[in-house]
Amino acid sequence: MNAFYWGSLALVGAVTLQWTDRRHWLTGHLFLFAAGALLLSAYHRFSAQASPLWQFIIVGMKVLAYGLLPIIILVVAVSFVRYSYRLIRKEGWHFHYSLLAIVGVLMILMLGLSVVNFEGWHSRRLWQLLGLALLLTAFFAFSFLAYLVACLTTRLGLPRKIDHVIVLGAGLMPDGRPTRTLSYRLKTAAKVYRDQRRKYHQPVTIVVSGGQGSDEVVAESTAMRRYLVAMGIPRDVIQEENRSTSTRENLRFSHELIVKKAPFYHAVMVTSDYHVLRANILARQLSLNLTGIGARTPWYYLPFAMFREYLALILMYRWTNLFAVLGLGLWYVLELVKLV
User: Where is the secretion signal located (predicted)?
Assistant: First the structure.
């Protein structure tokens, strides 16, 4: 069983999962694995039949790739640090804004230790530890790329007729106005509402979901309702859900509010583009027939938002990721024992 076999199997699994229920992070993993395995199979087939000239080019490309890898890692690490610095200057200090900088510093530390060990220390044990660190870095990089792929696949689907639009909250400004992220969600919800009314000519209710935080002057739902009314949405088509403090509660409490009047409702939820995947997963876990629509995110905020969302997914699947890390670590140790 070669790479083509495993790649084909992963592709079939990804397409099946996407067709039956696109609200899975696993779909991104399977599509990404399938692409890598099929490309590897194609490379092996091509290199086995390549002329001497192409063999020389392939070897040169491999050497170039190995030489560029440390430079790419360094550039990415420095970019992480610079981005965190600029975000903190723009938004003010919060620890979570420094997370990307911490990752960047760890990557630079790995490169620095590799250089020092190569030039002077020549510690075999350190090479082994750096190899394990590189393996785990590759694992988390793969799962992050899978998150990006799943962010795209989870939003694929045919438009459908709905009777409810659920808007998930995203914080308020100190004066009680929606944040820029939340305003984009509300604008997207207003567009969905108008498109549905124009296309199907039936009533559509907008449920604005969000409670009042300890540092907020009003409930998010109230600020969201005012914003939509100011955009020209009729007040009587807006319902407030003002108890929730998390995405899970947004979905559960909104569902409880809707089913009182419409037990067999058809709805979509509007959230930010980076957040659609996790919201879809939570809806699936709650057995709700909901799919998400993504609103745009300010470009300066998007890298941090995606990284934070990825960490939230890691925590959501903490046991799966822990077993994967332990499994990789055990495999690595066994391979080292074989070499000894």
Answer: none
Provide the β-strand partners of residue 151: none
Q: Given this model, what pLDDT does residue 339 score?
A: 61
**pLDDT recorded at residue 56:** 78
Q: Tell me the CB-side half-sphere exposure of residue 314, using CA atoms within 13 A.
A: 16
Query: For the chain, what percent of residues have pLDDT higher than 90?
Result: 44
Residues 6+ apart with CB under 8 A from 239: 205, 206, 207, 208, 257, 258
Nearest to 317 by CA among 152, 104, 146: 146
Q: Give the tens place of pLDDT for each residue, 60-106.
A: 887 887 778 888 888 888 888 887 877 777 767 777 678 778 888 88
Backbone angles phi, psi at 210, to 5 degrees: 170, 130
Identify whether residues 256 and 237 lie together within a single domain: yes
Q: How many domains would you assign to the chain? A: 2
Residues 114, 132 share a domain: yes
Amino acid 52 reads: P
Could you tell me if 139 and 184 are in contact, meaning their C-beta atoms sit under 8 angstroms apart?
Answer: no
Q: Taking the model in full, what pTM does it have? A: 0.86
Per-residue pLDDT tens over the stretch 220-246: 999 999 999 999 999 999 999 999 989
In a domain, 58, yes or no: no
Please give the Cα distance from 215 to 174 (Å, whole number).
8
Predicted local confidence at residue 118, as pLDDT: 79
Residue 4: Cβ within 10 Å count: 15
Residue 334 is part of which domain span?
72-153+299-340
**Per-residue model confidence (pLDDT) at position 183:** 94
What single letter denotes the amino acid at residue 329? G
CB count within 10 Å of CB 73 equals 18
Q: Which amino acid is at 106?
A: L
d(CA 329, CA 325): 6
Same-domain status, 281 and 309: no
> Cβ contacts of residue 240 below 8 Å, gap of 6+?
207, 208, 219, 221, 222, 224, 225
End-to-end CA distance of the chain: 28
